[in-house]
């Protein structure tokens, strides 16, 4: 190695440049610390009214990308103040640019995913948080990052995009079923027909459960016995299914019964409503009182038939609510001396 080059490296001027560069680097990092750990938490509390905690993915992703931006700025200024030779400077700044694009791409992927999930939570599922949307966002951002790196290396992306356009036509023909599932899944989500957590019933015996996820290929549904139904998105989009969470989750539970003609109908109505409200308080311990409907239906052959309607906030709650209500009303009517009767159908 040339001794003059070594002397240049360890000269007084070099150490002055190194000290100045290091000072600028540390100062910018300190500003990043103040901005990311002092200013951002306060702004977050004001903008989101303290609804986003420090452990929230959006908060973490936002702080991470701010720290990264200040680190990249500090690194850039550090390299600038070093006054490198033209040949070394070109290589160093090209490497710095590529590394910056890679780091920013990964940080933006985390940030946009966190923003999407937060928006879905705040709008109560107005836009589904299914993984198909997150994956589309990730693929798009990674593709942009790769194109920027190629452009930085001096590789023209226009011919590549043109080749992808022509080749994509051939690939689309070969991947027609896959693309059909992809666009069907997007159609389901954009049409707001389905989202994660909905309880759905498909055509077929036992084909019902909670929607676990909507991926680029299929919709997975978890049944009540914890088994999983996998339905291709194209089949899901073209089939008839019932979504019990649309337009809202509240369902009506109808229980029909009858009492003897000698019963005090006012008392029967009062007890039936009282028990219904007690059962609902057991399941939904909130200050809001749930509405219960009671109505007499008809004079049967040997009974006065009535109907009680109770709300259920979850599809699967209806079974336990019905069970508890029937058990309680049977016990209470026995204590009150009210005789339950049922009109038998012909042929039974």
UniProtKB/TrEMBL annotation:
Q: Which UniProt keywords apply?
A: Cell membrane, Membrane, Transmembrane, Transmembrane helix
Q: Where is the Mechanosensitive ion channel MscS C-terminal domain?
A: 254-340
Q: Where is the Mechanosensitive ion channel transmembrane helices 2/3 domain?
A: 135-176
Please classify the protein's predominant subcellular localization into one broad category: membrane
Gene3D superfamilies the record matches: 1.10.287.1260, 2.30.30.60, 3.30.70.100
The protein's topology relative to the membrane is: Multi-pass membrane protein
Q: Where are the transmembrane segments?
A: 20-40, 61-79, 91-113, 125-150, 156-175
Q: Which Pfam families match?
A: MS_channel_1st (PF21088), MS_channel_2nd (PF00924), MS_channel_3rd (PF21082)
Protein name, UniProt field: Mechanosensitive ion channel family protein
Record the organism.
Leptospira stimsonii
């Amino acid at each position: 190695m040339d001794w003059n080059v070594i002397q240049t490296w360890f000269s007084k001027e070099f150490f002055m440049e190194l000290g100045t560069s290091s000072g600028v680097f540390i100062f910018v990092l300190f500003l990043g610390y103040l901005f990311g750990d002092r200013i951002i938490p306060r702004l977050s509390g004001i903008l989101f009214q303290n609804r986003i905690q420090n452990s929230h993915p959006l908060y973490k992703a936002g702080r991470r990308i701010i720290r990264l931006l200040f680190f990249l700025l500090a690194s850039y200024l550090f390299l600038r103040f070093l006054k490198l030779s033209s040949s070394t400077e070109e290589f160093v700044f090209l490497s710095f640019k590529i590394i910056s694009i890679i780091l920013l791409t990964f940080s933006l992927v985390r940030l946009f995913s966190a923003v999407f999930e937060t928006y879905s939570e705040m709008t109560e599922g107005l836009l589904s948080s299914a993984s198909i949307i997150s994956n589309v966002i990730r693929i798009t951002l990674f593709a942009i990052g790769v194109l920027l790196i190629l452009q930085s290396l001096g590789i023209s992306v226009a011919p590549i995009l043109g080749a992808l356009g022509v080749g994509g036509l051939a690939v689309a023909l070969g991947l027609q079923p896959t693309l059909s599932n992809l666009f069907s899944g997007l159609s389901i989500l954009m049409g707001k027909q389905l989202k994660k957590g909905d309880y759905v019933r498909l055509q077929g015996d036992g084909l019902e459960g909670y929607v676990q996820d909507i991926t680029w290929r299929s919709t997975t549904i978890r049944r009540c016995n914890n088994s999983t139904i996998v339905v291709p998105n194209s089949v899901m989009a073209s089939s008839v299914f019932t979504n019990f969470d649309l337009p809202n989750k509240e369902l009506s539970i109808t229980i029909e019964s009858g009492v003897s003609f000698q019963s005090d109908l006012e008392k029967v109505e009062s007890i039936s409503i009282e028990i219904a409200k007690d059962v609902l308080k057991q399941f939904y311990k909130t200050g809001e009182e749930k509405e219960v409907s009671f109505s007499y239906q008809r004079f049967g052959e040997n009974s006065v038939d009535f109907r009680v309607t109770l709300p259920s906030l979850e599809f699967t709650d209806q079974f336990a609510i019905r069970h508890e209500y029937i058990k309680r009303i049977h016990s209470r009517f026995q204590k009150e001396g009210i005789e339950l009767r049922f009109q038998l159908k012909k042929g039974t």
